[in-house]
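Hey, resending since the last one bounced:
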Amino acid sequence: MKIEKRLEELGIELPLPATPVANYVTTVQTGNLVFTSGHGPGTGEGKIYKSQLGTDASVDDGYASARQVALGLISTLKHALGDLDRIKRVVKVVGFINSSADFTDQPAVLNGASDLFVEVFGDKGKHARSAVGMVQLPGGIPVEIEMIVEIED
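The structure tokens again:
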């Protein structure tokens, strides 16, 4: 339970795992890879954050939202895998950033998730990634993130 201990050391309490809101599942495993569905930020009270980077949200706001989404992703993986120590490596992270036409700091926003994955998983948390600006996201959320992790049996 090294990762659980690391979360405790960082003072991180994971939110409840995501539940699907339509006809899909939150994770799919094929071989030793686990793919997550896109996750957005929530408050844990059924509320969601709504904002657009470059309009009514700053890079710092976006960074905080991406970090919150990353916590949700870790929680979903814990629920799916049973043990976070099964994660051999965070392989790929894709972040969709709700952005105004002139907003160009999507990578700085996605750092909120990337930094957390490295804090929690160490070198196993370093990953390939894409940070993509979108004109809108479901429900007006500022950030949606999906990821691929490699696991050990």
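The radius of gyration is 15 Å.

Sorry for the duplicate.
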